[in-house]
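Look over what follows to help learners.
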Amino acid sequence: MEQTSGMEFFLCVLGMVFIVEGLPYFAFPAQIKQYLVKLLEIPERTLRFLGLGAIIVGLFLVYLGRQ
């Protein structure tokens, strides 16, 4: 069985991120536009908090996946 290198794994994961990120834009373009307009109304502090939360959850999932 062939072992994949770290770079191949990274590129695979990065490709999956692009797929997941692109799906809503492809499937629901009108709703995405409405959502982005509403996003302008959310305070920057709240967006930073949500971003930090997403980073922490992501790091936790990577930690669990690497166990």
About this structure: The mean pLDDT is 92. DSSP finds three helices and no strands in the chain. Residues 6-27 form the longest helix (22 residues).
